[in-house]
Design goal:
The protein is an all-alpha fold and about 130 residues long. It is built from six helices and no strands. About 75% of the residues lie in helices and about 0% in strands.
């Protein structure tokens, strides 16, 4: 051992192949992070037509995606600090899989009658209410 700490070894040495791979993977993930917002803007006319809603209503629904990402990052960051990154990521993965499976099996766009409509988010309540005819 030379007595040097790992930080100084990384700072003083040239970047290795593993470090370049880590940078490129991170760069690719950051580029893909904005792709969902971009792609939904191209798909929104077809979604509005299929759902039978106007563009203004769909704009509110799509705006909730950004709000959900912001709130999720604020809330789940603290959860990840307490229980760890891996359990948090696996829990989010499970929640996403259940949600996508439910969305894939949905027959209509409405709030389930067995659940009370969300009172704290009136936009979501109006967009998903069971008495609204789609």
């Amino acid at each position: 051992m030379t007595g040097r700490d790992p930080k100084s070894i990384i700072d003083d040495g040239p970047m290795g192949v593993g470090q370049w791979v880590a940078v490129l993977v991170t760069l690719g993930l950051n580029a893909m992070d904005g792709f969902d917002v971009l792609s939904i803007s191209f798909a929104s006319p077809g979604i509005a037509r299929d759902w039978g809603i106007d563009k203004a209503t769909l704009g509110w629904v799509l705006s909730m995606e950004l709000l959900g990402m912001a709130l999720g990052s604020l809330l789940l960051g603290g959860v990840a600090d307490k229980v760890g990154r891996r359990p948090t990521i696996l829990g989010c993965l499970a929640a996403m899989a259940i949600g996508m499976s439910g969305a894939g099996h949905a027959q209509a766009v409405r709030w389930p009658r067995s659940m009370p409509p969300p009172r704290k988010f009136p936009i979501a309540a109006g967009a998903t209410s069971p008495w609204r005819s789609w």
